[in-house]
Amino acid sequence: MATHTAFHSAQVSRLVPFNRAHALLYSVAVLAALHRRLAALLAPATLLSISVSLPLLLADLVLAFMWLTYQALRWCPVRRRDFPDRLALSVDPKDFPAIDVFICTADPHREPPMSVASTALSVMAFDYPTDRISIYVSDDGGSEITLFAFMEASRFARYWLPFCKENGIVVRSPEAYFRSSNGGDSEKMKLQMMYQTMKEKVETALERGYVGNDLVSSQEEAEVFKRWKGLPSHDHPSMIQVLLDTSKDTDIMGNALPNVIYVSREKRPTSPHHFKAGALNVLTRVSSTMSNGPMILTLDCDTYSNDPRSPLRALCYFLDPALSPDLAFVQFPQIFQGLNKNDIYACEVKRLYTINPRGKDGLGGPNYVGTACYFSRRSLQGTPSSTSLAPGANDPLSSESVLRKAHEVASCTYEPGTKWGSSIGFRYGSLSEDYHTGYHLQCEGWKSVFCYPARPAFLGDVPKNLNDVLSQRKRWCVGLFEVAFSKCCPLTFGTVKASLLVGLCYAHEAFWGSWCIPITIYGFLPQLALIYGIPLFPKVSDPWFYLYAYLFFTTYGQDLLEFLAADGTMGRWWSDQRMWMIIGLTSYLFGTVQFVLKKFGISAQGFNVTSKVMEDEQSKRYEKGTFDFGVESPFFVVLGAVATVNLSSLVLGIARAATMEGGFDELFVQLFLSAFVTANCWPIYEAMFLRSDEGKLPRNVTVISLALAGFLHCIGYLIFHN
Ligand SMILES: O=c1ccn([C@@H]2O[C@H](COP(=O)(O)OP(=O)(O)O[C@H]3O[C@H](CO)[C@@H](O)[C@H](O)[C@H]3O)[C@@H](O)[C@H]2O)c(=O)[nH]1
Ligand SMILES: [Mn+2]
């Protein structure tokens, strides 16, 4: 129960009784539908009936599995509120724990260094005792330009932090702030100029590919860059640079600045580096040799702070003695800036990032989603924080002994033979290291909290062309399968009921890629049968018809209601369900195949970093809400084929129904299905046949996808033509 002194409260969704009652009714319908399919399969068989019933049964089984497991996420969703004002009144800032902020970047060309530095500035300016903040940036790109951007940003911080605090600025990422607000007083103009100059310098360096002596501001800095010359990003020793030291560096008003430390861990072609999880583990260790803050905030390079009070919100939970012993992390939702009106690529990922976490929050906690998450260091480094790495009492950050230790723990030779990545730190073995890590922590008995304040605490970037989105989702799909098939954790969620519910949630999310099975089967099979007038579903005048109508409309209806209840719009929901189909046919299909190949050791894919930059023309198309195909991607071949098959079967199916007695009655479900898919495919037809801009489907892809559609029609002919 919330009292007026509690720092937080939680409320179970009022929809719970309704959800459970509906689940009961729906489960009867699912069983009836499965029974009907099974009966069809067991009836006297012909080649035709088997080649139809078997795939449809498989599709329905997967749908039933996904539906059943999803009910756990609807079982007990909660909404939390937190009260940072009460916290600020009753806890002395002197008692606030130190926070170590980890910012990961991996490629200066896909992740512009100045934006990364802007993210860092936004957290440096938190409303929090500045001498208790330490920023660690992990540069997996091993780029001197990123280091340069951070050197410049550290100098800029001397002006930026007092400016933000004195003027009560809320958006403290200079990039985001200057993007969204124009004009203003002379002080603001001065800072904007400074920022612009700095940005141009960094961009010059990026174009040249090195930091020239004309750009650096002191001999000391020039010396630093000398050490980098000729080092490839995949083969270099660890490089750690203390850029700001809170014990001596101050802003222009004389206030302390936070610690800022640049880290590029050692990379050798012969040592696995475990992508982002490896980077985060290095930061965990490096930070424990330096500031050793008990709280850790992990951020992707694009996730800037949009509310300087988020650390206080996290403290509302971490300082609650009833929660804190088991509390591993407080996850804020991933929310994005710059989406177009209807979010055509459904990059909000509402279900994954806001609806599901609320569902899990009622069952022990949401999963970790990689960014915007405050951890307790204890949960990552085992119980009572590994003191062996902690700095000596008075060792300054840049003392030789501290730096030696820091370099040592950032080297390739440190981890082998230790428990890092297996039972401590961020866990290895999945491309979705975030989901994997959260899963293990929860299995070990740690709890988590989903903190969703009205004002987004952090904002990030999304991929803005279709191929990037689909590649990103393919990586997620492979990563989730890797979690699903990773070494099973013992479920220790208290009661049997809790274990069952949490287990179902994980089963649902980890097997997310299995959506490809029903989506692909329902995307082609009934349509091909339609062309030959072969009904696969009950006719409208058959009472069984209502079973399918009920299943279809309540599924989509409930999805829509939940989407709207989570502040969605109709337009965005339409995009969301369309992308579910598109991703199922591409990312999940290819991802599933890739996962199987990887399992057999045939191929392995790394972490393809999503690009955070866009060409002008592409931006314009995105703003207008036009799909961007443009590249010759195998994903698009499948999309072109499904679009073609559905359109042709719709046309041929109508012709067939018109010439058959009672044709529309018999074929209604299949006609509806192909019309529905065709409506969803509208942007694909445009891209294939109507557009002439750069974002249209490349001619080659159109031709190959038409050929694939032709091939599928031949298969349909072989199966369905009597
Ligand atoms: O070897 C690597 C690869 C990536 N990154 C960083 O990881 C972050 C996420 O990469 P991004 O390409 O933006 O991936 P997304 O798919 O957009 O990210 C989502 O999915 C990832 C897991 O697949 C999570 O780690 C992210 O937090 C989550 O936002 C970025 O800051 C990268 O710089 C590294 O530090 N080292
Ligand atoms: Mn990202």
| Shape-level CATH architecture of the largest domain | Alpha-Beta Complex
Bound molecules: uridine-5'-diphosphate-glucose, manganese (II) ion
CATH class of the largest domain: Alpha Beta
The name CATH uses for the topology of the largest domain is Spore Coat Polysaccharide Biosynthesis Protein SpsA, Chain A
* Unreliable residue runs: none
- Helicity range: 40-55%
What would you give as the CATH superfamily of the largest domain? Answer: Spore Coat Polysaccharide Biosynthesis Protein SpsA, Chain A
Strand order of the largest sheet: 5-6-4-3-7-10-9-11
Helix run count: 24
- Please tell me what the overall shape is: globular
Residue fraction in strands: 5-15%
Largest sheet: 8 strands, mixed
C-alpha end-to-end distance = 68 Å
Q: How many domain modules? A: 2
> How many β-strand runs?
12
Radius of gyration over alpha carbons? 28 Å
Q: Which structural class fits the helix and strand makeup?
A: alpha/beta
Mean pLDDT: 94
Your description of this structure?
The chain is α/β, with parallel strands linked by helices. The chain has 2 domains: 11-75 and 511-605 and 617-720, no CATH class; 102-464, Alpha-Beta Complex (Spore Coat Polysaccharide Biosynthesis Protein SpsA, Chain A), CATH 3.90.550. Helix content is 53%, strand content 8%. The protein contains 24 helices and 12 strands. It has helices spanning 16-42, 47-75, 84-90, 113-124, 144-167, 174-180, 186-208, 219-226, 275-290, 310-318, 350-361, 377-381, 400-409, 433-443, 466-484, 496-510, 516-531, 545-565, 570-599, 616-624, 634-659, 663-680, 682-690, 699-720; strands at residues 8-12, 78-82, 99-105, 133-139, 239-244, 259-264, 295-300, 304-305, 327-331, 373-376, 447-450, 458-459. It has an 8-stranded mixed β-sheet, with helices on both faces. The chain has a two-stranded antiparallel ribbon with strand order 1-2. Helix 5 runs antiparallel to helix 7 (186-208) and helix 15 packs antiparallel against helix 16 (496-510). The radius of gyration is 28 Å and the shape is globular. The protein starts with 7 loop residues before the first strand and ends with a helix. The chain binds uridine-5'-diphosphate-glucose and manganese (II) ion. Manganese (II) ion binds next to loops. Uridine-5'-diphosphate-glucose (UPG) is lined by residues 104-106, 111, 138, 140, 275-276, 279, 300-301, 334, 370-371, 431-434, 472, 475-476, 479, 607, 609-610. Keywords: Cell wall biogenesis/degradation, Glycosyltransferase, Membrane, Transferase, Transmembrane, Transmembrane helix. It comes from Musa acuminata subsp. malaccensis. One of its GO terms (biological process) is cell wall organization. The active site is at 140, 434. It is found in: Endomembrane system.
